Prior knowledge:
The chain is an alpha+beta fold. The chain has one domain. 24% of the residues lie in helices and 27% in strands. The protein contains two helices and five strands, in the order E-E-E-H-E-E-H. It has helices at 31-41, 59-66; strands at 3-5, 9-13, 21-25, 45-48, 54-57. The strands form two sheets. A three-stranded antiparallel sheet has the order 1-2-3, covered by helices on one side. The protein has a two-stranded antiparallel ribbon with strand order 4-5. The longest helix has 11 residues, at 31-41. It is elongated.
Amino acid sequence: MSMTEYEDAFVFRCDGGCGLTCEFERGGPGSFMACVGEIKDRGWRIDRDRYGDFGHKCASCWRKGNEGILDRPLRRVQ
C-alpha cells in the first residue's frame, strides 16, 4: 500500500521507486478526496490491481514505465 493515514495527515508514496511522497494535513470531511484530486492534478496516476490494492505513481515514474510502449511491434490478431 502506498498511502498511509495518520491521525493528522495523509501520506501518499510513489510506488515507482523514486521515493517521492506527498503529505497533506488532514482536514474535515472530504479532505481525503481533496488530497486525491491534488495528487492527480500534479500528474500522479492511481491504479488498482487485480487483488484490489491501490498503487500510486508520480508523473515521472509513470512516464518512465510507459516509455516505448507504442514502439513495440504490432502482432497480428485473428
